[in-house]
Write a structure and sequence with these properties.
The protein is built from 11 helices and 19 strands. The protein has 424 residues and is α+β, with helices and mostly antiparallel strands.
Amino acid sequence: MPGKAAGVAGGEGDTVAAPAAAGSGEGPRGPLLDDLMPWSVRPLRTGRPWVTAADATSLRTRWDRLVRASGEERERLFAPTRARTQLSAVAALPGRSGGTGRFARETGPCPEPVRVLHGPFDEQWLLPDHRLIDVARPELWRVADDRQLFLVEHGRVPNDPGPAVSVTALLPDGHSPAGRPGRVRPLYRRPGGLEPNLAPGLLPALRARYGETVNAESVLAWILAAARSSPAGCVVPLPADAARWADGVELGRELLRLQLRGARGTERPRLPGGQRPYVRAAVPPDPAPLSYDAEERVLGLGTGRVSPVPAGAWEFRVSGVRVLELWFERRTAAPGPAGLEAVRPRAWLQEWTSELLELITLLALLAELRPRQEELADALAAGPDTGVEELRATGVLPVAEAARRPASVLDHQEEGPEGQFALL
């Protein structure tokens, strides 16, 4: 059980509790992820669902409709909240060239939508305009570059066998399918892959135990392979010997390669010939309902048919929610009231079929690695209780509160409200 926690600063005024390290008890033992990667950020909060979409064209159309509207119609379409109205004074998102004038005066072209990860394994699009997003977490945008990786902690669901964490090169919004938001942890605290987001002194301590090859990405790989949810928080058991560490890092690197989905120079996930899913019957414009025939290994989308689809891909869940069903529902659910969210494709898009085949492939390959993760978990649970006391003895724990706060990034200017430069 966690002990009494001290409040530490998070992003945009958040106060985050720093949980106590996990000790012995049921389930995996070892330090908490919160102590190994101490800087974490709460999920984004858009405040208005129409700023995200499964296709970029819908976002451009929504923007055009909004800026052409006037008066009460424009106010209704904007959907003001306490955090954002058309008169809010807001700085630009770091690294983006969006406007900083009051949105009430906006008549210009749509900012280029950016690819983001909307919850686990669902790549969608976002309008990168700070005036439209209630809580955009600019500290994440500030460190998002071609070297950054983001670890996403999923909401805990008791007895759920799904992964505790996942990783992405895209900016993640941290959305949880079960309504229990986790946290986003950048691998690096500064742009350019500088200053790993690891507890001070952790790398030297791990190198002393496992060898000089330990670096930030190998720690990330181990976390992907070994992290487990627990009532105390996400726990990352540490092995007693270097051989077990090496095996876990190898497994974690494979998980990392798959989840990057071609980013950072990696190859896109592919199943062996004969096991790759193909469209056997064209997906219709209205593909509901979604169904699965386990015996035939066929995924049905209305009259459309995709096969072979391994049972592991169909049953793959995160936070207790089946990933394929959620992905499909987000693209086919009936539109809401007559607002901007209702501006969406009238029929199934061909690009979604390609994305579906890639997602099936990814989930199938991740499911194939689950037995190895379970074997690792069993070995760690059966081994000696290592990690917490050793890290305390070397001074890694407890973690200094400064490590839980974002680093100052002073190597570039950011535009503040109404075009003024922001002071960081």
